[in-house]
Specification:
435 residues; 6-stranded mixed β-sheet; single chain; mainly beta; 2 domains; 5-stranded mixed β-sheet
């Protein structure tokens, strides 16, 4: 019998389909518990130096700002803002009781020990949870149109300003070094952002997720880590693509770029992507936008090539990008290896994945690229007479084969595929069909 933990920890979960998808039963992708405990080690570091036992307040013209002071009394941390449906502007004070405001936003380490809620919250105290589409919008902030952050701000917490749906522009003070996950998630009217001069870390997946109108992002040329170029955030040397503004429809990756970061083009309105002549490394889910239906490559690119719906490495035959058409992907005969690092664009829910006979290796949690753990309706076809080889499959809490779905194999090879599934403790969880 397959171990129960293997079913729970794997990417192909029946439980997920019963729960509506996207829920991992308390396990992360590596099979470990995903829920952050109320009192974790984070509190030892992020709360250090702050007197969280005593709250101070600042009464503004349209809102009340709740803060903690540092133990030396020099700095202030505004973690909560009380607003009403009449509040139109959040003008954060630069000082609170003489202390300079250097930190804004809620920290999950503030939770009480008995608090079982693992989710974060925005500056107005409303829950934010990206995985389930909760951006923190509420009637408390329904009319907030502008935000002025403290001029000496150095820490802007994740989810801090999420759900402010009427805010059109934001200037992030130059002292802020990190833009974290979901910081501006759900700011649907946001059109313009000025990034801080000292920016050194940027969450390229969810920091500006669900900001479809964001088209203008500026960054000082004095920044030492990044640069903006025609709506693209690149590393300072211009060799790595980090992110693209969400409102950009057509993305042309410059010829200077050799690599594309994980999740770089996973969100946004882009429908087409052109890869420059030097691109050779493409990260996990790097080009995974649902609306991307066309990916092309510079003719002079020596490292990657395109065949049908697939972009692959010329040397290894590794699949890099699969472009879905009508929720179907057919893997061509140039692809030899599929790994979890591949990107799927043009679809979030495949009807059919047709794996060509040329594919000899399935590496690691390869099913993640087509969201196997969230979508159990995808029909999978194996065209090879012999089952592919599984590599990097050492996690005993994970099932590396498609289960709880229709799987089709060559009629003459049915016995071989049954043996393959049995060897991996998965035969009882799939009904193999033939063609």
């Amino acid at each position: 019998m397959m171990r129960n933990k293997r079913i729970l920890g794997g990417a192909l979960l029946l439980s997920m389909s019963l729960l509506g998808g996207g829920l991992n039963m308390g396990f992360s992708n590596n099979g470990q518990p995903a829920i952050v405990k109320a009192a974790d080690t984070k509190s030892q570091s992020t709360l250090a130096g702050w007197n969280t036992g005593k709250e101070v307040t600042y009464k503004g013209s349209e809102a009340t700002y709740h803060a903690y002071l540092s133990e030396d009394g020099k700095n202030a941390w505004i973690y909560l803002v009380e607003t009403t449906n009449k509040t139109k502007s959040l003008k954060f004070p630069d000082t609170v009781e003489g202390a300079v405001v250097t930190r804004v936003g809620y920290d999950t380490a503030l939770r009480k020990l008995e608090d079982a809620d693992e989710f974060n919250q925005n500056i107005s105290g409303v829950t934010v949870e990206y995985a389930h589409g909760v951006d923190g919008w509420s009637e408390k902030t329904i009319n907030v149109e502008s935000v002025v952050l403290p001029k000496n701000l150095t820490i802007l917490e994740s989810t801090a300003l999420s759900g402010l749906r009427k805010v059109k522009s934001i200037t992030i003070p130059d002292g802020v070094q990190k833009i974290s996950a979901e910081t501006f998630y759900g700011c649907k009217s946001l059109k313009e952002v000025k990034l801080p001069k000292s920016l050194a870390s940027f969450d390229n997946y969810t920091s500006f997720s669900a900001c479809p109108k964001l088209s203008k992002v500026t960054l000082s040329k004095e920044n030492k880590s990044f640069k903006m170029q025609k709506g693209l955030l690149l590393n300072k040397k211009g060799t790595k693509l980090i992110w693209a503004v969400p409102a950009k429809n057509k993305i042309t990756v410059p010829d200077s770029v050799t690599s594309i970061a994980d999740n770089a083009l996973k969100a946004g309105k882009a429908t087409s992507v052109y890869l420059g002549k030097k691109v050779k490394m493409i990260g996990k889910d790097a080009i995974a936008g649902k609306k991307i239906t066309k990916v092309s490559i510079a003719k002079k690119n020596k490292s990657i090539a395109k065949q049908g719906q697939c972009i692959y490495e010329k040397k290894s035959g590794k699949l890099l990008i699969a472009v879905a058409k009508k929720n179907v992907v057919k893997i061509g005969n140039k692809v030899k290896l599929i790994s979890e690092d591949a990107s799927l664009c043009g679809s979030r829910q495949l009807k059919k994945l047709d794996i060509g006979a040329s594919v000899k290796t399935l590496q690691g949690a390869w099913g993640e690229f087509y969201r196997a753990g969230y979508v159990t309706t995808t029909k999978v076809y194996f065209r090879s007479k012999n089952p592919p080889k599984l590599t990097q499959n050492n996690d005993k809490n994970y099932c590396y084969l498609p289960i709880f779905r229709d799987v089709y194999v060559p009629k003459a090879s049915l016995k071989k595929y049954k043996k393959w599934y049995k060897k991996n403790d998965a035969l009882q969880f799939v009904k193999l069909k033939t063609f």
